[in-house]
């Protein structure tokens, strides 16, 4: 690593991983209302989400990269949504689809969550009631741009430093306790 730039192999590995992530974003649909029907139409022949490399809609969070939340989320559903998000593997991204998921929609009541960003972090917001399939395509393209700008090697470096810091703290505590 010279001048802050990764070497040839690390740079090429970073580009390869970024390219792979970019063209294989697999969504997990969490649909509770009419926006979920609009999301379902993205898989039809007319729209064909597979053009973006997202043809595999996964119904298990451990195999998905993108959590597509579409519809009204109540406070009773909030812990379920948070658990699904936590079960997803890293790296993971969230798309909030429709007015209900983004801001609670036109529901002004005690049981509706006023936006899922109060529960989980959101990467891309899609407005509308219901939002169109074309808007979901735009969101996926925005997400691809975000993924393209992320560095696998930098993320890995941060995780290794964090892991080694934890290990060194445990060793220090153990030696202090033994002394």
Characterise the protein shown here.
45% of the residues lie in helices and 10% in strands. With 179 residues, the protein is α/β, with parallel strands linked by helices. The chain folds into 2 domains: 8-148, Rossmann fold (3-Layer(aba) Sandwich), CATH 3.40.50.12280; 151-179. The chain has a 4-stranded parallel β-sheet. Helix 1 (8-22) runs antiparallel to helix 5.
Highlighted features:
6 helices, alpha/beta, four-stranded parallel beta sheet, 179 residues, Rossmann fold, 2 domains
Topology:
Blueprint: H1 8-22, E1 27-31, H2 34-41, E2 66-70, H3 78-87, E3 93-97, H4 99-103, E4 124-126, H5 133-148, H6 152-178
Parallel strand pairs: 1-2, 2-3, 3-4
Helix pairs in contact: 1-5
């Amino acid at each position: 690593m010279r001048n802050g730039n990764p070497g040839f192999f690390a740079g090429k590995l970073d580009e390869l991983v970024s390219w792979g992530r970019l063209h294989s974003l697999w969504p997990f649909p969490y649909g509770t209302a009419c926006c979920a029907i609009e999301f379902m139409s993205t898989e039809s022949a007319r729209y064909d989400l597979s053009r973006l490399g997202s043809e595999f809609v996964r119904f298990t969070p451990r195999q998905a990269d993108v959590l597509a939340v579409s519809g009204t989320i109540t406070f009773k559903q909030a812990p379920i949504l948070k658990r699904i998000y936590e079960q997803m593997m890293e790296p993971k991204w969230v798309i909030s689809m429709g007015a209900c998921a983004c801001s609670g929609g036109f529901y002004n009541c005690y049981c509706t969550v006023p936006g899922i960003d109060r529960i989980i972090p959101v990467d891309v917001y899609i407005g509308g009631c219901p939002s169109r399939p074309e808007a979901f395509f735009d969101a996926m393209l925005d997400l691809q741009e975000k993924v393209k700008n992320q560095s696998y090697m930098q993320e890995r470096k941060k995780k290794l430093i964090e892991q080694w810091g934890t290990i060194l703290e445990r060793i220090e505590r153990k030696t202090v306790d033994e002394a």
